[in-house]
Input
Amino acid sequence: MGKNLFEKIISRHLVSGNLVPGEEIGIYIDQTLTQDATGTMAYLQFEAMNVPRTKTELSVSYVDHNTIQIGFENADDHLYLQSVAQKYGIVFSRAGNGICHQVHLERFGKPGKTLIGSDSHTPTCGSLSMIAIGAGGLDVALAMAGSPFYLTCPKVIKINLAGKLKPWVSAKDVILKVLEIFTTKGNVNTVFEYGGKGIESLTVPERATITNMGAECGVTTSIFPSDKMTRIFLRSQHRERDFIELKADKDAKYAKVVNIDLSKIEPLTAKPHSPDNISTVKKMNKIAVNQVCLGSCTNSSYKDLITVAKILKGKTVHPDVSFILTPGSKQVLKELSKSGYLTGLISSGARITESACGFCIGNGQSPPSGSVSLRTSNRNFLGRSGTIDANVYLVSPETAAAAVITGCFTDPRNLKMRYPKVTMPKKFSVDDSMIIWPDKKKNESEVFRGPNIGILPRTPELSDTIHGPVIIKVGDKITTDHIIPAGARMKYRSNIPKYSEFVFENIDPNFARRAMSIRQDGKQSIIVAGLSYGQGSSREHAALCPMYLGIRAIIAKSFERIHTANLINFGILPLTFCVESDYDRIDQEDYLEISDIKRIISEDGKFLMRNKTKGTAFYVTCELSDRQKQIILAGGALNISNKENKLRV
Ligand code: MIC
Ligand code: SF4
Output
């Protein structure tokens, strides 16, 4: 029987388990990436493993998230990361070199390889036919130490693309269409494999926009074949030697095939406050726009920026709009400058920021209160921009450019001009001078630890009974941005006690204080949630900080993949309602209890949860693989790897 592309690559990396959807498998990891906001914790964990050098083919540490540097904290983190990289054989991409996913695509991604990254948008490199998966920092640290990466074997859905995109419609509109079809929930343990005639006209950066935002559907990863377009891209990066052809067999099997005709897609937008709240741009016409942000790892390629530059040529930014432009990498910025289009953009009034995540993570450029911001990034969660009542819409670069000129939501097809044609440079001017290569030999150099580098919090032993109040009851689609905000708070990523003060800040500002006082009384607390808990970012802080505040279990209707792995790694029980409607029979502050935990975890994981306040009981389940059971019973993954590797934490 023929194999699909995902099966072909994964079977070459399989270390344990069978390729049966739903079963746990372990795979060998060729490459890892980290970024600074998750990287400090990942490397603190890696250091604790006492492994002298990374064991992967390639591990890259990027600095791209916390580049605002108000106060000493971020600068301390960067120095820590640089010194750890030197010591352990990790490639270091300095601040200013660009966003991890864009730079990894340009300089390091290789068809047929596996990559895990401590960032949920790691699947961007699926556009280069890699199996590229987002993970928590601890899982990335374990992979660097040579351990396999474990995941539930996903089912593979084929997204069959036909036709060609019409002028003024681009890759962002394709992935917004996919989000309209699949939404942000219900896609756990799924892979999107793209194929069909339609892919032939999509360049690698366009494919990258599509694989990047597969993360918003919650899939394990998304992947394109490695074909002529892949070769052209690798050649343009002076890396044709990395090209191999990869495609699914003709008789490959898929769990489902979904057909999308590219020629039927219109300019789309994701309305506030979820990437799956899709509408056509046409319907939004005339809504006044206050801010437009172009950039992020989704849409900051050469083609994206030059298209916008051509649309804006000779025009001035509308007086009511603030236009922010954040190039994805130093390479893109240099090409923009070489082409002369940067001058045009500056003349138009663009506010050019450094090549980093910037506005996308609320690190600067927060829009005015109650305003409308159009962004080419991938997430429009409530409050992520740094302004709690802002209305953020996700759009393509073309739709963004139209609003820059008109000052309102405008279907770009209504701009009275020809769609600008952008040809990619045959060869980009490659300049890796912002990349620091580690010494080949073992390096004994000191690791820099400024005052912002905290200590690794310990996870407590698993107790046999968990009892405590429902400290918060939340609804569906709670993102890790809701659980622990980024933006202005992100500078505390390396200091868990401080960062924990902001857990659920945007939903319930008193949450951390309440949780802390329960913990100080020696008690535990429980969170109750709806569907798809833990969407979005891979930040393990969304598990670490609640763990620090004494949360021992979360009962939800369903969980997202990376967050579940993070909860287990830090010893928090992810419990699912056996009957969803039991959610409606619990109130915040009800006192809940489960007992005999160790025995039940080792057996079928089905618990009777007693609601002591209401005098009722209901069933919840904790579905874990044997490996995950061991982690939970040990009180967290570091406790296990400490025992196994005689670690020193
Ligand atoms: C994001 O886009 O939310 C982030 C910031 O890149 C996160 C990682 C983090 O929280 O540091 C992600 O996507 O995983
Ligand atoms: Fe950075 Fe935004 Fe991409 Fe996350 S989604 S990696 S914050 S650019």
Summary: The first helix runs from residue 5 to 11.
